[in-house]
């Protein structure tokens, strides 16, 4: 009874917040709203675009990855009339969510990054995933612009019946914003040649992995549509640090480097991370994996299939959790040496092993599901933590949780800029201090 009452109160609060956000959005007619969706890369695209636009005019964006039933209305209620731009991240991880969120945002610019095998329990097929994400475009305001990934056929098909301006990004020669000569071989970071019309620019980033090119291209395209020059956009892109827990490299006192990618355990995100590690140069490549989502296979067959890539790319594999035995068996069956495949029931046991195993020259991929909270393992490798919860239902990255109790901060490789770190953990972009007069609003 108490649980049912609690859920009822929660739904009432969400409904009230949704209604308030709907009315508030209608009053913000001078703010340009930019909505971003896609199976992967939403948060990176949002952070990148917000950083570019904030250098031009007052800009606000979704905090962290608040992109669901409660996150989108919260993001809208943080927008103020003096914000010229609002960059809103919108998820499609449940039936009906995109319809509700797009009705709230009513974007002036809508970005669709990718359709991949995420949330397949809810949608079953990629076509249904694409149909859900396409609902964002149906809510584009008159005169609005759709910015679409021309390399993804399901995204490209969304333009067929769209009565709005379309701007294309990707790698094909016919697209408006193209990435060529893409390079991202660790320890080098992602770089590429950007072609837009007659202009050709070199883009050098601090991000790890070639799969980030699409979110960056989309961000530059959107900024350019809003009047930001390519040079200014590229300059801002070059200053963006990796987002916490999304291919974020940190250095341990042992000299080993851990690449944190523990927020998305989907098959698609796993493939992107594996590709980045396959191209990397390191003395030893080590995988730490707690789980996989969005696979239609059972644990035994899932890990047997993954084992081929694990054995080919990594010298050591550490599997954590109830399916760890399947991970070990899959890696060994694919050719990994028995002494190189390890399984542990808990992250504490894995911590004991890694604490004595890691050394200078190691490159470690920390990969898992958001609910596994492997962020605790990253922090515990650099110093004591206070969190001892065997299970946690929170959906936030542990960096933002007061219960983590980390006594030693992580040391990113390289150190993040103060601007980026502050934006992620605390304040929105270009938020105006209380009591200060806001700048004159205008539209792009």
Task: Give structural notes.
The protein has 444 residues and is of the alpha/beta class. It folds into two domains: 11-173 and 213-227, Mur-like, catalytic domain (UDP-N-acetylmuramoyl-L-alanine:D-glutamate ligase), CATH 3.40.1190; 248-411, Protein-Tyrosine Phosphatase, Chain A (Alpha-Beta Complex). It contains 15 helices and 15 strands. It has a nine-stranded mixed sheet, with helices on both faces. α11 crosses α12 (324-333). The N and C termini lie far apart (51 Å). Residues 415-444 have low confidence and may be disordered.
SSE inventory with pairings:
Layout: H1 2-27, E1 32-37, H2 42-54, E2 59-61, H3 71-77, E3 85-89, H4 97-105, E4 109-112, H5 120-123, H6 126-138, E5 145-149, H7 153-156, E6 165-170, E7 177-183, E8 191-196, E9 199-204, H8 213-225, H9 230-237, E10 248-251, E11 257-261, H10 267-278, E12 284-289, H11 299-313, E13 316-320, H12 324-333, E14 341-344, H13 347-357, E15 362-367, H14 375-380, H15 418-425
Parallel strand pairs: 1-3, 1-4, 2-3, 4-5, 5-6, 6-7, 11-15, 12-13, 12-15, 13-14
Antiparallel strand pairs: 7-8, 8-9, 10-11
Helix pairs in contact: 1-3, 2-8, 2-9, 4-6, 8-9, 11-12
